[in-house]
Design goal:
Layout lengths: L3 H13 L11 H24 L11 H21 L5 H17 L1
C-alpha cells in the first residue's frame, strides 16, 4: 500500500505547480481523446508532406488506387504515432483542455 503522506505531498506539489486540479466535473477521458486525435491529425499533415515526394512504384501498379490506400496508410501511421505520445502534442492539448474546463467551473 502507498503511504498516505506521500500521496498528499504529491497532490500538494501538483496544486502548487499550476497544474489543473482533477475535479469530479472534469472530463479527463474526453480531454485525453481529443488531445490524441489532435496529435494524430497534426502528424497526418506532416506525413502527407513527407510522402508527397515519393512516387508510386511501377512494379505494384500505382494509379489512383495507390493514392487512396496511401492516404489510409498515412492516417493509420498517424494514429499509431499519436498513441505513443512521442511528440508531446497530445499531452499539452489535454492539459490546456483541462485548464479551460477548470476555469469554466470557477
Amino acid at each position: 500500500m502507498s503511504d498516505p503522506n506521500v500521496l498528499l505531498s504529491s497532490i500538494a506539489a501538483l496544486q502548487n505547480s499550476g497544474a489543473p486540479a482533477v475535479d469530479s466535473n472534469l472530463d479527463v477521458a474526453a480531454a485525453q481523446k481529443t488531445g490524441e486525435d489532435f496529435e494524430a491529425f497534426f502528424l497526418s499533415q506532416a506525413f502527407e508532406n513527407m510522402f508527397s515526394g515519393v512516387n508510386a512504384d511501377p512494379m505494384f501498379g500505382g494509379g489512383a488506387g495507390e493514392s487512396i490506400y496511401r492516404s489510409m496508410m498515412i492516417q493509420e501511421y498517424s494514429k499509431v504515432a499519436a498513441g505513443t505520445h512521442s511528440t508531446g502534442i497530445s499531452d499539452e492539448v489535454t492539459r490546456e483542455i483541462l485548464r479551460m474546463q477548470e476555469r469554466q467551473q470557477h
